[in-house]
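Checklist before submission:
- one chain only
- standard amino acids only
- sequence pasted in full

Submission:
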Amino acid sequence: MRTRLILGLALALFLALFWFFTGYRPAAAEDLTHQELTNLEPAVAETPVEGASAGQRVREQPPSSFEIAARSRGTPDFPGLNIIWITPWGDREDANIWHNVVVHQSEGPAGSAYANALAQAARPGKRGASIWVETDGTVYWATGEWATPSHVRSGNRNDNHYIGNADTYQLVPNNDSIGVEFVGNYPNVRKPPTEAQIEAWRILVKILQTRYGIPTDRIFAHNWVDYKDRRYCEGCMLASIVRKATTEVALQEPASKPDQ
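Returned file contents:
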């Protein structure tokens, strides 16, 4: 035992003297190359790239602050959007399963959004919409995400007049379609939405799509899915902005078959 101890001490002394006189030292982090350091970094979650060649992978990006807010609860703020929470969000998992967004114009005067939103909050199932937008761009979130206001006729249009109705005929009911109501087209129903409403809509629709996973092809103007009004195309300009269609298509007049 004593002999091993002496041998161990002698070996340690030898190595110390060797490193001192030769300048050798074990590799430290600063001696490693950039590639070697990269290989030592903790692994980041990676997923296969859809449609990519075999073995190609991409690092998952963390959610943006906008996505975090859009999937939160309570009364989140969104830059560029003035939103008044009459009814705050609950947990996203408890919300209704929304498959569609339907854009409406109320044919009510400027300044009526707040009163209509309050009335909607008091009676969530009555005729109206979950969200109301004033002419100055203020958004009023009126009802709980579980509520289903009466705002569509289940998609009773089947004439393919504005869009193809094969995927909408009797497939756009109240219980899975969230409605957004824009006020201000009174007394002239053909009066277009204000610039402030359009800018608010660009942000609002992104929130709805992010929170509920609604694809762009499930965003509809009311006149696209229901026989609604032959005086004008309700909601068509706003829905077409999202669909990136031309304003000429959005504002086209009803054809020979009148709305009912």
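Reviewer check: The beta strands are 46-48, 57-59, 83-85, 100-105, 131-133, 139-141, 177-182, 219-221.
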